[in-house]
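for the record, two folds in this file. i put them one after another cuz i was lazy. first one right below, seq on top, C-alpha coordinates after. the second one comes after a little note so u can tell where it starts
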Amino acid sequence: MNWNLLAEQVLAGHELSDEEGLAILESDDDQILELLHSAYQIRKHYYGNKVKLNMIVNTKSGFCPENCGYCAQSIDSEAPIQKYRMMDKDTIVQGAEQAHRLRSGTYCIVASGRGPTNRELNEVTAAVQEIKAKYDMKVCACLGLLRPEQADKLKEAGVDRYNHNINTSKNHHDAITTTHTYDDRVETVNYAKQAGISPCSGVIVGMKESRLDVVHMAKALKELDADSIPVNFLHAIDGTALEGTNELTPIYCLKVLALFRFINPTKEIRVSGGREVNLRSLQPLGLYAANSIFVGDYLTTAGQEGTKDHQMLKDLGFEIEYPNPQSVTK
Protein backbone atom coordinates (compact mmCIF):
# COMPACT_ATOMS: atom_id res chain seq x y z
CA MET A 1 0.00 0.00 0.00
CA ASN A 2 1.23 3.48 -0.89
CA TRP A 3 0.37 5.37 2.30
CA ASN A 4 1.24 8.80 0.89
CA LEU A 5 -1.08 8.25 -2.07
CA LEU A 6 -3.84 7.06 0.29
CA ALA A 7 -3.40 10.21 2.40
CA GLU A 8 -3.68 12.38 -0.72
CA GLN A 9 -6.85 10.54 -1.68
CA VAL A 10 -8.32 11.08 1.79
CA LEU A 11 -7.57 14.80 1.58
CA ALA A 12 -9.40 14.79 -1.75
CA GLY A 13 -12.48 13.22 -0.12
CA HIS A 14 -11.85 9.48 -0.37
CA GLU A 15 -13.43 7.31 2.36
CA LEU A 16 -11.51 4.18 3.31
CA SER A 17 -12.92 0.75 2.54
CA ASP A 18 -12.82 -1.98 5.16
CA GLU A 19 -9.98 -3.56 3.19
CA GLU A 20 -7.92 -0.36 3.26
CA GLY A 21 -8.56 0.01 6.99
CA LEU A 22 -7.43 -3.54 7.65
CA ALA A 23 -4.34 -2.94 5.51
CA ILE A 24 -3.32 -0.19 7.95
CA LEU A 25 -3.77 -2.39 11.03
CA GLU A 26 -2.10 -5.38 9.36
CA SER A 27 0.79 -3.46 7.80
CA ASP A 28 4.35 -4.60 8.50
CA ASP A 29 5.85 -3.02 11.59
CA ASP A 30 8.78 -1.73 9.57
CA GLN A 31 6.33 0.51 7.66
CA ILE A 32 5.26 2.39 10.78
CA LEU A 33 7.27 5.56 10.06
CA GLU A 34 5.94 5.74 6.51
CA LEU A 35 2.39 5.22 7.80
CA LEU A 36 2.73 7.90 10.49
CA HIS A 37 4.29 10.32 8.01
CA SER A 38 1.23 9.90 5.78
CA ALA A 39 -1.20 10.25 8.69
CA TYR A 40 0.69 13.39 9.70
CA GLN A 41 0.07 14.94 6.28
CA ILE A 42 -3.67 14.70 6.99
CA ARG A 43 -3.29 15.91 10.58
CA LYS A 44 -1.10 18.84 9.52
CA HIS A 45 -3.54 19.87 6.80
CA TYR A 46 -6.32 20.37 9.35
CA TYR A 47 -4.49 21.11 12.60
CA GLY A 48 -0.94 22.18 11.79
CA ASN A 49 1.37 21.49 14.75
CA LYS A 50 -1.15 22.37 17.44
CA VAL A 51 -2.17 20.00 20.25
CA LYS A 52 -5.28 20.32 22.37
CA LEU A 53 -4.98 19.55 26.10
CA ASN A 54 -7.82 18.07 28.14
CA MET A 55 -8.09 17.30 31.85
CA ILE A 56 -10.52 14.97 33.62
CA VAL A 57 -12.07 15.34 37.07
CA ASN A 58 -13.72 12.19 38.40
CA THR A 59 -16.62 13.78 40.29
CA LYS A 60 -18.21 10.51 41.40
CA SER A 61 -16.36 7.21 41.76
CA GLY A 62 -17.86 3.75 41.96
CA PHE A 63 -21.47 2.89 42.88
CA CYS A 64 -22.24 2.11 39.22
CA PRO A 65 -24.99 -0.42 38.36
CA GLU A 66 -23.52 -1.17 34.92
CA ASN A 67 -21.40 -4.28 34.23
CA CYS A 68 -18.81 -2.94 31.76
CA GLY A 69 -15.98 -5.46 31.73
CA TYR A 70 -13.18 -2.89 31.43
CA CYS A 71 -14.26 -0.64 34.28
CA ALA A 72 -13.01 -0.66 37.87
CA GLN A 73 -16.21 1.17 38.86
CA SER A 74 -18.50 -1.55 37.47
CA ILE A 75 -20.97 -3.32 39.74
CA ASP A 76 -19.10 -6.58 39.03
CA SER A 77 -15.64 -5.15 39.64
CA GLU A 78 -13.59 -6.28 42.64
CA ALA A 79 -10.88 -3.67 42.03
CA PRO A 80 -9.90 -1.81 45.23
CA ILE A 81 -10.75 1.73 44.14
CA GLN A 82 -11.70 4.80 46.10
CA LYS A 83 -15.47 5.29 46.11
CA TYR A 84 -17.28 8.55 46.78
CA ARG A 85 -20.57 10.24 45.98
CA MET A 86 -20.98 13.28 43.74
CA MET A 87 -18.64 16.18 44.50
CA ASP A 88 -20.18 19.49 45.40
CA LYS A 89 -20.06 22.51 43.13
CA ASP A 90 -17.08 24.16 44.81
CA THR A 91 -14.91 21.04 44.52
CA ILE A 92 -15.72 20.71 40.82
CA VAL A 93 -14.78 24.35 40.30
CA GLN A 94 -11.46 23.77 42.10
CA GLY A 95 -10.66 21.10 39.52
CA ALA A 96 -11.14 23.69 36.79
CA GLU A 97 -8.53 25.85 38.50
CA GLN A 98 -6.05 22.98 38.20
CA ALA A 99 -6.99 22.48 34.54
CA HIS A 100 -6.34 26.18 33.98
CA ARG A 101 -2.87 25.89 35.56
CA LEU A 102 -2.08 22.91 33.30
CA ARG A 103 -3.09 25.01 30.29
CA SER A 104 -5.93 22.64 29.37
CA GLY A 105 -8.32 23.97 26.77
CA THR A 106 -11.05 21.55 27.85
CA TYR A 107 -12.11 20.53 31.36
CA CYS A 108 -13.94 17.20 31.46
CA ILE A 109 -16.47 16.63 34.26
CA VAL A 110 -16.97 12.87 34.57
CA ALA A 111 -19.24 10.87 36.87
CA SER A 112 -19.83 7.14 37.22
CA GLY A 113 -23.31 5.66 36.96
CA ARG A 114 -25.92 4.82 34.37
CA GLY A 115 -26.98 8.45 34.15
CA PRO A 116 -27.20 11.56 36.34
CA THR A 117 -29.82 12.10 39.03
CA ASN A 118 -31.50 15.50 39.25
CA ARG A 119 -29.31 16.42 42.24
CA GLU A 120 -26.13 15.41 40.44
CA LEU A 121 -27.15 17.33 37.34
CA ASN A 122 -27.84 20.42 39.46
CA GLU A 123 -24.36 20.28 41.02
CA VAL A 124 -22.75 19.97 37.59
CA THR A 125 -24.74 22.75 35.95
CA ALA A 126 -24.09 25.13 38.86
CA ALA A 127 -20.37 24.36 38.65
CA VAL A 128 -20.32 24.82 34.87
CA GLN A 129 -21.92 28.25 35.12
CA GLU A 130 -19.23 29.39 37.57
CA ILE A 131 -16.39 27.84 35.56
CA LYS A 132 -17.51 29.51 32.34
CA ALA A 133 -17.70 32.85 34.15
CA LYS A 134 -14.14 32.50 35.51
CA TYR A 135 -12.14 30.74 32.80
CA ASP A 136 -11.84 30.83 29.04
CA MET A 137 -11.99 27.07 28.58
CA LYS A 138 -14.35 24.54 27.12
CA VAL A 139 -16.31 22.29 29.46
CA CYS A 140 -17.09 18.70 28.54
CA ALA A 141 -19.52 16.62 30.60
CA CYS A 142 -19.53 12.83 30.75
CA LEU A 143 -22.36 11.69 33.00
CA GLY A 144 -23.67 8.53 31.35
CA LEU A 145 -26.93 8.05 29.47
CA LEU A 146 -28.96 11.24 29.02
CA ARG A 147 -32.58 12.14 28.47
CA PRO A 148 -33.29 14.97 26.01
CA GLU A 149 -34.33 17.41 28.74
CA GLN A 150 -31.08 16.73 30.62
CA ALA A 151 -29.06 17.49 27.49
CA ASP A 152 -30.99 20.76 27.12
CA LYS A 153 -30.21 21.69 30.73
CA LEU A 154 -26.49 21.05 30.23
CA LYS A 155 -26.50 23.20 27.10
CA GLU A 156 -28.26 26.02 28.92
CA ALA A 157 -25.63 25.91 31.70
CA GLY A 158 -22.84 26.37 29.17
CA VAL A 159 -21.57 22.83 28.53
CA ASP A 160 -19.67 22.90 25.24
CA ARG A 161 -19.19 19.18 24.69
CA TYR A 162 -20.72 15.91 25.87
CA ASN A 163 -18.74 12.68 25.94
CA HIS A 164 -20.33 9.28 25.68
CA ASN A 165 -18.09 6.65 24.14
CA ILE A 166 -19.36 3.86 21.93
CA ASN A 167 -16.34 1.99 23.40
CA THR A 168 -16.39 -0.88 20.93
CA SER A 169 -18.09 -2.06 17.76
CA LYS A 170 -21.79 -2.86 17.66
CA ASN A 171 -20.85 -6.47 16.90
CA HIS A 172 -18.59 -6.77 19.98
CA HIS A 173 -20.69 -4.71 22.42
CA ASP A 174 -22.48 -7.59 24.16
CA ALA A 175 -19.13 -9.19 25.00
CA ILE A 176 -18.24 -6.08 27.01
CA THR A 177 -21.50 -5.14 28.74
CA THR A 178 -25.11 -6.35 28.87
CA THR A 179 -26.77 -3.75 31.13
CA HIS A 180 -27.23 -1.31 28.28
CA THR A 181 -27.12 -1.56 24.50
CA TYR A 182 -24.88 -0.09 21.83
CA ASP A 183 -27.92 1.81 20.55
CA ASP A 184 -28.42 3.34 24.03
CA ARG A 185 -24.98 4.90 23.69
CA VAL A 186 -25.59 6.19 20.18
CA GLU A 187 -28.92 7.66 21.31
CA THR A 188 -27.22 9.70 24.05
CA VAL A 189 -24.69 11.12 21.58
CA ASN A 190 -27.57 12.12 19.32
CA TYR A 191 -29.46 13.77 22.20
CA ALA A 192 -26.38 15.90 22.89
CA LYS A 193 -26.17 16.88 19.22
CA GLN A 194 -29.87 17.76 19.12
CA ALA A 195 -29.36 20.04 22.15
CA GLY A 196 -26.61 21.89 20.29
CA ILE A 197 -23.74 20.36 22.27
CA SER A 198 -20.61 19.24 20.43
CA PRO A 199 -20.53 15.41 20.43
CA CYS A 200 -17.50 13.57 21.81
CA SER A 201 -17.40 9.80 21.44
CA GLY A 202 -14.56 7.33 21.32
CA VAL A 203 -13.37 3.80 21.86
CA ILE A 204 -11.32 1.43 23.98
CA VAL A 205 -8.99 -0.74 21.94
CA GLY A 206 -7.57 -4.01 23.25
CA MET A 207 -10.75 -5.63 24.62
CA LYS A 208 -10.44 -8.86 22.60
CA GLU A 209 -12.13 -7.30 19.58
CA SER A 210 -11.11 -8.21 16.02
CA ARG A 211 -9.18 -5.86 13.77
CA LEU A 212 -12.27 -5.50 11.62
CA ASP A 213 -14.14 -4.41 14.75
CA VAL A 214 -11.58 -1.59 15.15
CA VAL A 215 -12.17 -0.47 11.56
CA HIS A 216 -15.92 -0.51 12.15
CA MET A 217 -15.49 1.51 15.35
CA ALA A 218 -13.66 4.25 13.45
CA LYS A 219 -16.31 4.23 10.73
CA ALA A 220 -19.18 4.31 13.24
CA LEU A 221 -17.72 7.47 14.77
CA LYS A 222 -17.47 9.01 11.31
CA GLU A 223 -21.16 8.22 10.79
CA LEU A 224 -21.99 9.73 14.21
CA ASP A 225 -20.03 12.83 13.17
CA ALA A 226 -18.30 13.01 16.55
CA ASP A 227 -16.25 16.21 16.76
CA SER A 228 -13.81 14.74 19.27
CA ILE A 229 -12.71 11.10 19.33
CA PRO A 230 -10.83 9.81 22.37
CA VAL A 231 -8.90 6.65 21.54
CA ASN A 232 -8.29 4.69 24.74
CA PHE A 233 -6.03 1.66 24.96
CA LEU A 234 -7.09 -0.90 27.54
CA HIS A 235 -5.25 -0.68 30.83
CA ALA A 236 -6.54 -3.93 32.27
CA ILE A 237 -7.24 -3.54 35.97
CA ASP A 238 -7.08 -6.43 38.41
CA GLY A 239 -10.55 -7.23 39.68
CA THR A 240 -12.34 -6.41 36.42
CA ALA A 241 -13.71 -8.90 33.89
CA LEU A 242 -10.85 -8.06 31.51
CA GLU A 243 -8.16 -8.57 34.15
CA GLY A 244 -4.97 -9.91 32.60
CA THR A 245 -5.85 -8.91 29.04
CA ASN A 246 -2.69 -7.75 27.30
CA GLU A 247 -3.16 -7.74 23.53
CA LEU A 248 -1.54 -4.44 22.58
CA THR A 249 1.93 -3.43 21.43
CA PRO A 250 3.14 0.16 21.07
CA ILE A 251 3.40 -0.15 17.29
CA TYR A 252 -0.11 -1.58 16.96
CA CYS A 253 -1.43 1.35 19.01
CA LEU A 254 0.27 3.72 16.56
CA LYS A 255 -1.40 1.91 13.65
CA VAL A 256 -4.77 2.36 15.37
CA LEU A 257 -4.20 6.10 15.74
CA ALA A 258 -3.21 6.33 12.07
CA LEU A 259 -6.36 4.41 11.11
CA PHE A 260 -8.58 6.83 13.03
CA ARG A 261 -6.86 9.80 11.36
CA PHE A 262 -7.36 8.32 7.89
CA ILE A 263 -11.04 7.55 8.54
CA ASN A 264 -11.83 10.74 10.48
CA PRO A 265 -9.46 13.23 8.85
CA THR A 266 -11.07 16.46 10.06
CA LYS A 267 -11.78 15.43 13.66
CA GLU A 268 -9.97 15.86 16.95
CA ILE A 269 -8.27 12.52 17.63
CA ARG A 270 -7.20 12.26 21.26
CA VAL A 271 -4.66 9.79 22.65
CA SER A 272 -6.46 8.94 25.87
CA GLY A 273 -6.50 6.39 28.69
CA GLY A 274 -3.80 3.76 28.66
CA ARG A 275 -1.36 5.71 26.48
CA GLU A 276 1.38 5.62 29.12
CA VAL A 277 1.28 1.85 29.69
CA ASN A 278 0.61 0.83 26.07
CA LEU A 279 2.55 3.32 23.93
CA ARG A 280 5.32 3.58 26.54
CA SER A 281 8.44 5.15 24.99
CA LEU A 282 6.62 5.65 21.68
CA GLN A 283 4.07 8.09 23.15
CA PRO A 284 5.44 11.12 21.25
CA LEU A 285 4.97 9.36 17.90
CA GLY A 286 1.23 9.10 18.54
CA LEU A 287 0.90 12.84 18.09
CA TYR A 288 1.88 12.61 14.44
CA ALA A 289 -1.58 11.09 13.91
CA ALA A 290 -3.51 12.45 16.91
CA ASN A 291 -3.82 16.12 17.83
CA SER A 292 -5.06 15.95 21.42
CA ILE A 293 -4.11 14.35 24.75
CA PHE A 294 -5.28 14.20 28.35
CA VAL A 295 -3.05 15.72 31.00
CA GLY A 296 -3.15 14.62 34.62
CA ASP A 297 -4.80 11.45 35.89
CA TYR A 298 -7.64 9.41 34.42
CA LEU A 299 -10.66 8.01 36.27
CA THR A 300 -9.09 5.29 38.41
CA THR A 301 -5.56 5.16 37.00
CA ALA A 302 -2.67 7.60 37.12
CA GLY A 303 -1.53 9.55 34.09
CA GLN A 304 1.80 11.10 33.22
CA GLU A 305 2.84 14.19 35.16
CA GLY A 306 1.50 17.28 33.38
CA THR A 307 4.87 18.98 33.14
CA LYS A 308 6.27 15.92 31.32
CA ASP A 309 3.49 16.22 28.77
CA HIS A 310 4.35 19.88 28.25
CA GLN A 311 8.00 18.96 27.75
CA MET A 312 7.07 16.20 25.31
CA LEU A 313 5.12 18.69 23.19
CA LYS A 314 7.97 21.18 23.31
CA ASP A 315 10.49 18.51 22.27
CA LEU A 316 8.26 17.60 19.30
CA GLY A 317 8.05 21.22 18.20
CA PHE A 318 4.27 21.24 18.73
CA GLU A 319 2.24 24.09 20.19
CA ILE A 320 -0.43 23.90 22.88
CA GLU A 321 -3.78 25.09 21.57
CA TYR A 322 -6.17 26.85 23.94
CA PRO A 323 -9.15 29.15 23.41
CA ASN A 324 -7.46 32.42 24.35
CA PRO A 325 -3.66 32.52 24.81
CA GLN A 326 -3.93 35.74 26.85
CA SER A 327 -6.00 33.93 29.48
CA VAL A 328 -3.40 31.30 30.29
CA THR A 329 -1.24 31.53 33.37
CA LYS A 330 2.40 31.24 32.32
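(here's the note) second protein begins now
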Amino acid sequence: MRLTILGCYSATPRSLTNPTSQLLEIRNHMFLIDCGEGTQVQLRKQKLKFSRIKHVFISHLHGDHFFGLPGLVSTFRLLGRESELHIYGPKGIKEAITLLLKLGDSWTNYPLLFHELNSKESELIFEDDKVSVRTIPLNHRVYTNGFLFEEKLAPRVLDVEAVAKYGIDKSEFRNIKNGKAGTAKSGESILNSDLTLDPPKPKSYAFCSDTAYKEDIVPLIKNVDLLYHESTFLETEEHLCAKTKHSTASAAARIAKMARVDKLVLGHYSTRYKSLELFKEEAQPIFSNVELAEDGKVFEI
Protein backbone atom coordinates (compact mmCIF):
# COMPACT_ATOMS: atom_id res chain seq x y z
CA MET A 1 0.00 0.00 0.00
CA ARG A 2 1.44 3.34 -1.05
CA LEU A 3 0.09 6.83 -0.48
CA THR A 4 1.30 9.75 -2.59
CA ILE A 5 0.45 13.25 -1.39
CA LEU A 6 -0.37 15.37 -4.43
CA GLY A 7 -1.53 18.39 -2.44
CA CYS A 8 -2.00 19.05 1.26
CA TYR A 9 -2.70 22.74 1.84
CA SER A 10 -5.99 24.46 2.57
CA ALA A 11 -7.92 27.05 0.60
CA THR A 12 -5.99 28.28 -2.45
CA PRO A 13 -3.20 26.98 -4.71
CA ARG A 14 0.14 28.78 -4.52
CA SER A 15 3.29 28.62 -6.63
CA LEU A 16 4.83 25.81 -4.57
CA THR A 17 1.84 24.30 -2.78
CA ASN A 18 -1.37 22.62 -3.87
CA PRO A 19 -4.80 22.00 -2.33
CA THR A 20 -5.89 18.56 -1.21
CA SER A 21 -5.40 15.51 -3.39
CA GLN A 22 -3.92 12.06 -2.77
CA LEU A 23 -3.36 8.85 -4.69
CA LEU A 24 -3.63 5.55 -2.84
CA GLU A 25 -2.19 2.45 -4.51
CA ILE A 26 -3.66 -0.64 -2.90
CA ARG A 27 -3.99 -4.22 -4.19
CA ASN A 28 -3.79 -3.27 -7.90
CA HIS A 29 -6.10 -0.28 -7.46
CA MET A 30 -5.19 3.38 -7.89
CA PHE A 31 -7.71 5.38 -5.86
CA LEU A 32 -7.76 9.18 -6.23
CA ILE A 33 -8.83 10.88 -3.01
CA ASP A 34 -10.03 14.46 -3.49
CA CYS A 35 -9.01 16.42 -6.55
CA GLY A 36 -8.07 20.03 -5.89
CA GLU A 37 -6.70 22.34 -8.58
CA GLY A 38 -3.35 21.19 -9.95
CA THR A 39 -3.98 17.49 -9.41
CA GLN A 40 -3.27 16.60 -13.04
CA VAL A 41 0.04 18.46 -12.98
CA GLN A 42 1.03 16.72 -9.76
CA LEU A 43 0.14 13.31 -11.17
CA ARG A 44 2.43 13.99 -14.12
CA LYS A 45 5.24 15.34 -11.92
CA GLN A 46 5.13 12.17 -9.83
CA LYS A 47 5.09 10.06 -13.03
CA LEU A 48 1.95 8.23 -11.92
CA LYS A 49 -0.01 6.38 -14.58
CA PHE A 50 -3.27 8.14 -13.88
CA SER A 51 -5.03 6.37 -16.73
CA ARG A 52 -5.27 3.49 -14.23
CA ILE A 53 -7.49 5.56 -11.93
CA LYS A 54 -10.97 4.04 -12.02
CA HIS A 55 -12.35 5.34 -8.71
CA VAL A 56 -12.34 8.91 -7.40
CA PHE A 57 -13.46 9.73 -3.85
CA ILE A 58 -14.48 13.33 -3.13
CA SER A 59 -14.89 14.28 0.53
CA HIS A 60 -16.99 17.43 0.08
CA LEU A 61 -17.92 20.13 -2.38
CA HIS A 62 -15.58 22.92 -1.33
CA GLY A 63 -13.48 24.01 -4.29
CA ASP A 64 -10.09 23.17 -2.85
CA HIS A 65 -11.17 19.52 -2.78
CA PHE A 66 -12.81 19.02 -6.18
CA PHE A 67 -12.16 21.91 -8.61
CA GLY A 68 -9.52 19.77 -10.35
CA LEU A 69 -12.03 17.05 -11.16
CA PRO A 70 -13.75 18.63 -14.22
CA GLY A 71 -10.36 19.07 -15.85
CA LEU A 72 -9.34 15.49 -15.11
CA VAL A 73 -12.63 14.16 -16.54
CA SER A 74 -12.04 16.26 -19.67
CA THR A 75 -8.43 15.12 -20.03
CA PHE A 76 -9.47 11.49 -19.90
CA ARG A 77 -11.85 12.23 -22.79
CA LEU A 78 -9.11 13.92 -24.83
CA LEU A 79 -6.79 10.96 -24.23
CA GLY A 80 -9.38 8.57 -25.62
CA ARG A 81 -10.28 6.82 -22.40
CA GLU A 82 -12.71 3.94 -22.82
CA SER A 83 -12.87 2.38 -19.35
CA GLU A 84 -15.39 3.39 -16.70
CA LEU A 85 -14.68 6.15 -14.19
CA HIS A 86 -16.54 5.95 -10.88
CA ILE A 87 -16.93 9.11 -8.82
CA TYR A 88 -18.06 8.91 -5.19
CA GLY A 89 -19.04 12.17 -3.53
CA PRO A 90 -21.78 14.25 -1.91
CA LYS A 91 -25.14 14.67 -3.59
CA GLY A 92 -24.74 17.50 -6.10
CA ILE A 93 -21.43 16.39 -7.56
CA LYS A 94 -23.13 14.85 -10.60
CA GLU A 95 -24.94 18.10 -11.34
CA ALA A 96 -21.75 20.14 -10.92
CA ILE A 97 -19.67 18.02 -13.30
CA THR A 98 -22.29 17.24 -15.93
CA LEU A 99 -23.37 20.88 -16.20
CA LEU A 100 -19.85 21.87 -17.21
CA LEU A 101 -19.73 19.04 -19.75
CA LYS A 102 -23.11 20.10 -21.13
CA LEU A 103 -22.21 23.78 -21.44
CA GLY A 104 -18.94 22.89 -23.15
CA ASP A 105 -20.59 20.31 -25.42
CA SER A 106 -17.90 17.87 -24.34
CA TRP A 107 -19.60 14.73 -23.11
CA THR A 108 -17.23 11.92 -22.25
CA ASN A 109 -16.70 9.07 -24.67
CA TYR A 110 -16.36 6.69 -21.72
CA PRO A 111 -18.84 5.67 -18.99
CA LEU A 112 -18.87 8.28 -16.21
CA LEU A 113 -20.66 6.80 -13.19
CA PHE A 114 -21.61 8.86 -10.15
CA HIS A 115 -22.27 7.44 -6.68
CA GLU A 116 -23.82 10.28 -4.71
CA LEU A 117 -23.67 10.15 -0.93
CA ASN A 118 -25.97 11.68 1.66
CA SER A 119 -25.94 9.31 4.64
CA LYS A 120 -24.82 10.68 7.98
CA GLU A 121 -23.85 7.18 9.07
CA SER A 122 -20.79 5.24 7.92
CA GLU A 123 -21.60 3.11 4.88
CA LEU A 124 -19.84 0.69 2.57
CA ILE A 125 -19.45 2.39 -0.82
CA PHE A 126 -16.99 0.11 -2.64
CA GLU A 127 -16.01 -3.51 -2.29
CA ASP A 128 -14.33 -6.22 -4.31
CA ASP A 129 -12.47 -9.40 -3.36
CA LYS A 130 -9.39 -7.43 -2.21
CA VAL A 131 -10.47 -4.06 -0.81
CA SER A 132 -13.38 -2.34 0.91
CA VAL A 133 -14.05 1.40 1.26
CA ARG A 134 -16.32 2.94 3.89
CA THR A 135 -17.28 6.52 4.61
CA ILE A 136 -16.24 8.32 7.79
CA PRO A 137 -18.88 10.99 8.54
CA LEU A 138 -17.17 14.25 9.50
CA ASN A 139 -18.24 17.60 10.94
CA HIS A 140 -17.62 20.45 8.51
CA ARG A 141 -19.57 23.44 7.20
CA VAL A 142 -21.05 21.30 4.42
CA TYR A 143 -21.80 17.59 4.18
CA THR A 144 -18.40 15.87 4.36
CA ASN A 145 -17.01 12.34 4.52
CA GLY A 146 -13.64 10.86 5.16
CA PHE A 147 -12.86 7.44 3.74
CA LEU A 148 -11.57 4.21 5.29
CA PHE A 149 -9.67 1.90 2.93
CA GLU A 150 -9.14 -1.65 4.16
CA GLU A 151 -7.44 -4.63 2.58
CA LYS A 152 -9.17 -7.97 2.90
CA LEU A 153 -7.32 -10.97 4.26
CA ALA A 154 -5.40 -12.61 1.44
CA PRO A 155 -5.39 -16.39 0.95
CA ARG A 156 -2.83 -18.44 2.84
CA VAL A 157 0.53 -18.81 1.11
CA LEU A 158 1.90 -22.15 -0.03
CA ASP A 159 4.92 -23.19 2.08
CA VAL A 160 7.31 -24.48 -0.59
CA GLU A 161 9.62 -26.14 1.93
CA ALA A 162 6.77 -27.94 3.66
CA VAL A 163 5.21 -29.40 0.49
CA ALA A 164 8.66 -30.58 -0.57
CA LYS A 165 9.25 -32.16 2.86
CA TYR A 166 6.03 -34.18 2.66
CA GLY A 167 6.39 -34.95 -1.04
CA ILE A 168 3.11 -33.29 -2.00
CA ASP A 169 2.34 -33.61 -5.71
CA LYS A 170 2.07 -30.33 -7.66
CA SER A 171 -1.43 -31.29 -8.80
CA GLU A 172 -2.62 -30.62 -5.23
CA PHE A 173 -1.16 -27.12 -4.91
CA ARG A 174 -4.29 -25.31 -6.06
CA ASN A 175 -6.51 -27.19 -3.59
CA ILE A 176 -4.05 -26.52 -0.78
CA LYS A 177 -4.03 -22.78 -1.60
CA ASN A 178 -7.84 -22.94 -1.38
CA GLY A 179 -7.66 -24.29 2.16
CA LYS A 180 -7.78 -28.06 1.69
CA ALA A 181 -5.50 -30.66 3.26
CA GLY A 182 -2.73 -32.30 1.24
CA THR A 183 -1.72 -35.92 0.75
CA ALA A 184 1.87 -36.86 1.53
CA LYS A 185 3.87 -39.24 -0.61
CA SER A 186 3.29 -41.84 2.11
CA GLY A 187 -0.50 -41.42 1.76
CA GLU A 188 -0.84 -39.53 5.05
CA SER A 189 -3.24 -36.58 5.11
CA ILE A 190 -1.43 -33.34 6.04
CA LEU A 191 -3.27 -30.43 7.62
CA ASN A 192 -3.53 -27.31 5.51
CA SER A 193 -1.98 -25.26 8.33
CA ASP A 194 1.16 -27.44 8.06
CA LEU A 195 1.48 -26.76 4.33
CA THR A 196 0.76 -23.03 4.20
CA LEU A 197 1.97 -19.79 5.76
CA ASP A 198 -0.11 -17.00 7.25
CA PRO A 199 -0.81 -14.23 4.72
CA PRO A 200 0.43 -10.72 5.47
CA LYS A 201 -1.69 -8.73 7.92
CA PRO A 202 -4.25 -6.65 5.99
CA LYS A 203 -3.42 -2.95 5.92
CA SER A 204 -5.69 0.02 6.38
CA TYR A 205 -5.72 3.74 5.69
CA ALA A 206 -8.11 6.40 7.02
CA PHE A 207 -8.46 9.75 5.28
CA CYS A 208 -10.10 12.38 7.48
CA SER A 209 -10.60 15.49 5.43
CA ASP A 210 -11.92 18.83 6.67
CA THR A 211 -13.55 18.43 10.06
CA ALA A 212 -13.94 19.89 13.48
CA TYR A 213 -12.74 17.75 16.37
CA LYS A 214 -15.04 14.70 16.34
CA GLU A 215 -14.43 11.92 18.85
CA ASP A 216 -17.16 9.64 17.52
CA ILE A 217 -15.03 8.78 14.47
CA VAL A 218 -12.60 6.95 16.77
CA PRO A 219 -14.36 3.54 16.66
CA LEU A 220 -14.40 3.71 12.84
CA ILE A 221 -10.65 4.24 12.54
CA LYS A 222 -9.49 2.08 15.46
CA ASN A 223 -6.01 0.58 14.94
CA VAL A 224 -5.57 1.71 11.32
CA ASP A 225 -2.03 1.57 9.99
CA LEU A 226 -2.08 5.16 8.75
CA LEU A 227 -4.37 8.06 9.60
CA TYR A 228 -4.39 11.32 7.67
CA HIS A 229 -6.17 13.96 9.72
CA GLU A 230 -6.55 17.60 8.82
CA SER A 231 -4.70 20.11 11.00
CA THR A 232 -5.54 23.47 9.54
CA PHE A 233 -4.56 25.49 12.61
CA LEU A 234 -2.21 25.55 15.55
CA GLU A 235 -3.50 26.04 19.08
CA THR A 236 -2.75 29.76 18.85
CA GLU A 237 -5.63 30.00 16.34
CA GLU A 238 -7.89 27.43 17.99
CA HIS A 239 -10.60 30.09 18.29
CA LEU A 240 -11.04 29.86 14.50
CA CYS A 241 -11.97 26.16 14.62
CA ALA A 242 -15.56 26.68 15.80
CA LYS A 243 -16.33 29.10 12.98
CA THR A 244 -14.55 27.22 10.17
CA LYS A 245 -15.17 23.66 11.43
CA HIS A 246 -11.50 22.75 11.22
CA SER A 247 -9.04 21.10 13.61
CA THR A 248 -5.72 21.88 15.22
CA ALA A 249 -2.64 19.67 15.11
CA SER A 250 -3.11 18.81 18.79
CA ALA A 251 -6.74 17.83 18.17
CA ALA A 252 -5.65 15.49 15.36
CA ALA A 253 -3.08 13.97 17.71
CA ARG A 254 -5.75 13.34 20.37
CA ILE A 255 -7.88 11.48 17.82
CA ALA A 256 -4.86 9.38 16.76
CA LYS A 257 -4.06 8.53 20.37
CA MET A 258 -7.62 7.50 21.22
CA ALA A 259 -7.88 5.40 18.04
CA ARG A 260 -4.49 3.76 18.72
CA VAL A 261 -3.43 4.19 15.12
CA ASP A 262 0.06 3.20 14.05
CA LYS A 263 1.01 6.49 12.38
CA LEU A 264 -0.56 9.93 12.02
CA VAL A 265 -0.02 12.22 9.04
CA LEU A 266 -0.98 15.88 9.41
CA GLY A 267 -2.13 18.05 6.51
CA HIS A 268 -4.50 20.73 5.16
CA TYR A 269 -2.34 23.45 6.64
CA SER A 270 -3.37 27.07 6.67
CA THR A 271 -0.88 29.06 4.62
CA ARG A 272 -0.56 31.62 7.42
CA TYR A 273 2.22 29.58 9.04
CA LYS A 274 5.84 29.92 7.95
CA SER A 275 7.01 26.51 9.16
CA LEU A 276 5.29 23.11 8.99
CA GLU A 277 7.51 21.87 11.81
CA LEU A 278 5.30 23.84 14.19
CA PHE A 279 2.47 21.38 13.48
CA LYS A 280 4.66 18.39 14.32
CA GLU A 281 5.98 20.05 17.46
CA GLU A 282 2.43 20.63 18.65
CA ALA A 283 1.21 17.08 17.93
CA GLN A 284 4.16 14.96 19.11
CA PRO A 285 3.80 15.47 22.87
CA ILE A 286 0.33 13.90 22.52
CA PHE A 287 1.02 11.26 19.86
CA SER A 288 4.65 10.47 19.10
CA ASN A 289 4.49 8.73 15.71
CA VAL A 290 3.48 11.72 13.61
CA GLU A 291 4.64 12.88 10.19
CA LEU A 292 3.91 15.86 8.00
CA ALA A 293 2.21 15.63 4.63
CA GLU A 294 4.09 17.52 1.93
CA ASP A 295 3.34 17.82 -1.78
CA GLY A 296 5.03 14.89 -3.53
CA LYS A 297 5.77 12.94 -0.37
CA VAL A 298 5.19 9.17 -0.46
CA PHE A 299 4.19 6.98 2.47
CA GLU A 300 4.75 3.24 2.24
CA ILE A 301 2.20 1.52 4.44
